[in-house]
């Protein structure tokens, strides 16, 4: 049985592969891209149940991409989890202030990733397919 669609926005191939493999192993469907601009476009087009958003991306940042998702009624209610290694205080503040639904640190813990994904999809799932 296939589960919800999850969009992975991540420019690092290794991280993208890790997240993709873990989620697909658990039965989730995934789509992915390497930039925030593409992530915003894909989210509007595919309406994933959840977006995993890297912060440091080529082009617009994950924070700017979140703002654009929230500004569009088509994507405003999709839960978005920041996935970031940002340890600098200012960076961290900006990420928290941006209004993400959750955060996941890097290096990525598979256990934490799956727990957070399960929680967010249960909370935001509603009638979404
Ligand atoms: Mn990155």
Q: Please, could you describe this protein's structure?
A:
This protein is of the alpha/beta class and 129 residues long. It has one domain (5-123): 3-Layer(aba) Sandwich (Rossmann fold). It has 5 helices and 5 strands, in the order E-H-E-H-E-H-E-H-E-H. The chain has helices spanning 13-25, 36-46, 62-71, 89-97, 110-124; strands spanning 5-9, 29-33, 50-54, 80-84, 102-105. The protein has a 5-stranded parallel β-sheet, with helices on both faces. Strand 4 (80-84), helix 4 (89-97) and strand 5 (102-105) form a beta-alpha-beta unit. The model has no long low-confidence stretch (mean pLDDT 91).
**Count of individual beta strands:** 5
Ends: how far apart? 13 Å
SSE order in H/E notation?
EHEHEHEHEH
CATH homologous superfamily caption? Response regulator
Q: Per CATH, which architecture?
A: 3-Layer(aba) Sandwich
Structural class based on helices, strands and sheet pairing: alpha/beta
Query: What hetero molecules are in the model?
Result: manganese (II) ion
Shape: globular
Would you state the CATH class?
Answer: Alpha Beta
